[in-house]
Amino acid sequence: MTLRNNFRACALVAGAALLATATSAQSPRPPAPAPVVIKIIGFNDYHGTLQSPGTFGVNTLVPSAQRPAVGGAEYMAAYISRLKSQNPLNVVVGGGDLIGATPLISALFFDEPAVETLNKMGLEFSSVGNHEFDKGSAELKRCRTAAARSPTACPIPTAARAWAPAPRAPSTARSSSGFRPT
Asked: For the chain, what are the domain ranges?
């Protein structure tokens, strides 16, 4: 009798499972939404490199004339644009050190040219690196404000004087070459 009861219990469970499957097969499920592919375009250590710093080769056996030009705002903007064209759903993010420790062409204008080029590249989010704090947190906040006024974040040279530090009295120190720092 125990075997017969076990058989009945198994048949009852199998019947219930079959009924549940048949019931769920009859109720239509909405189709699953198609997956969304978002391209995350990220870079770091831009350091306001507006101009290409030169060329790079796999090794020194490659003649410098055959090495490709690397870096610079123009190269970065074209590369980011190419990546964006591959997928309209994209986001451009920075991993820090986008300003600070910059070449003279950007540093002379308080990194505003770097901020402007980053805006034109479509940078949407960025973390901060150690070089964003090279001139202190107040300067970082000023650059963030400059980024908000894009696309004219870069000052023209005459306007840059408004951001120059207050003039100071000339120093009396002299170097051996006769140069007098001010």
From this structure: 39-48+67-161
